[in-house]
Design brief:
Blueprint lengths: L2 E7 L3 H13 L6 E8 L5 H8 L4 E5 L5 H10 L5 E6 L2 E3 L3 H11 L3 E9 L5 E2 L2 E2 L4 H4 L3 H15 L5 E3 L2 E2 L3 E5 H7 L11 H11 L3 E12 L10 H49 L5 H19 L1 H5 L13
Parallel strand pairs: 1-2, 1-4, 2-3, 6-12
Antiparallel strand pairs: 4-11, 5-12, 6-7, 6-11, 8-10, 9-12
Length: 321
């Protein structure tokens, strides 16, 4: 079989419908299969698949086991030479799958590739990132974002393909033999940072990771996690970030990152708490900022042992609030 398309689903029924439909519509004559791993959706996603797409290989989990666990379940049931990891809010376009498979066949030194990504309105979307670095991640979040986007911009080339640190998981074709060599996704990361972790192992094994611009995929971005509160999204992202640094940079680097974040959030809690008192609780933006800073401060204290020396765990959103 040429390619196994693996989609992880969590409460994105209509986006999932479009994603699966695009897989069958644009299979481009390839020998392919579609595997959907549903993580305990409560919106009728499983019922929709059974009714509208009975040819899908469906794995239905009773609870949200996490993105990495679900991806690994899909790969364990896959038989393709390539795995295409496709987000449930992404959709293939005409020729995308065929172009990706042909490109990978021509370049055996490439482990992982992403097509060019765009939003549904046709606007540009980033398809790759740089590996997380301690020197950058000890900075405030807004500055981290600017530095990483600037670095990503430097990757881009006016060419058929260009090499990157890692490609995002929205639409990521991976060579099955490389997965057998470097291992599946690390299930100690619930979601986020999973693509950077996986492809860092591929890089260490000597394989390239590229963006292939001749193929195109549309991606809405973040449909499933929008159901979570901003605080839960923020804290779950932080837990995955700390897990990544523990795995790839060790306890000392993680201690430094945790210490900087602890001090930073203590300062923000005091600052916005004072603002709340001075404005008599009438400024909703100050209140929201205070609550987020306080939640992050409590998180850093409560989970210090897990972050700093216990083995990283795949925390769910309700585990860190």
């Amino acid at each position: 079989m040429d390619v196994s398309i693996i989609i992880v689903s969590w409460n994105t029924r209509e986006d999932l419908r479009a994603a699966v439909d695009s897989c069958f519509r644009y299979s481009d004559g390839l020998d392919s299969e579609v595997i959907v791993v549903d993580n305990g959706s409560a919106d009728g996603s499983v019922e929709m698949l059974r009714t509208d797409f009975p040819e899908v290989n469906l794995i239905s989990n009773e609870r949200n086991a996490g993105y990495t666990v679900a991806c690994n379940q899909g790969m364990a049931h896959a038989s393709g030479r390539y795995y295409l990891m496709l987000n449930s809010d992404a959709a293939l376009t005409a020729g995308c799958l065929h172009e990706l498979v042909t490109f990978m066949d021509l370049h055996p030194d490439i482990a992982s590739a992403s097509p060019r990504l765009q939003f549904p309105d046709g606007s540009r979307q980033y398809a790759a990132g740089i590996f997380p670095r301690l020197s950058i991640h000890i900075l405030p979040a807004a500055i981290i974002r600017k530095i990483e986007l600037a670095a990503t911009d430097r990757f881009e080339r006016p060419a058929e393909s260009y090499d990157v640190d890692y490609v995002f998981g929205a639409c990521n074709i991976v060579r099955a033999t490389v997965v057998a060599e470097v291992g599946p996704m690390d299930e100690r990361i619930f979601m986020w940072y999973d693509d950077a972790d996986w492809q860092k192992r591929m890089a260490e094994a000597g394989y390239r990771r590229v963006v292939f611009t001749n193929a195109l995929c549309t991606h809405k971005v973040g449909t499933s996690y929008q159901a979570l509160s901003a605080i839960r999204r923020n804290l779950r992202n932080s837990m995955s970030e700390f897990a990544y640094f523990r795995i790839h940079h060790g306890k000392l680097a993680t201690l430094l990152l945790w210490s900087v974040r602890l001090i930073y959030n203590l300062a923000k809690t005091l600052f916005f708490g004072t603002g709340w008192l001075l404005t008599l609780g009438r400024n909703s933006r100050i209140i929201a900022a205070f609550r987020l800073a306080r939640a992050r401060l409590r998180f850093h204290v409560k989970y210090a042992a897990h972050i700093l020396w216990r083995d990283p765990q795949p925390y769910r959103a309700d585990d860190v609030t």
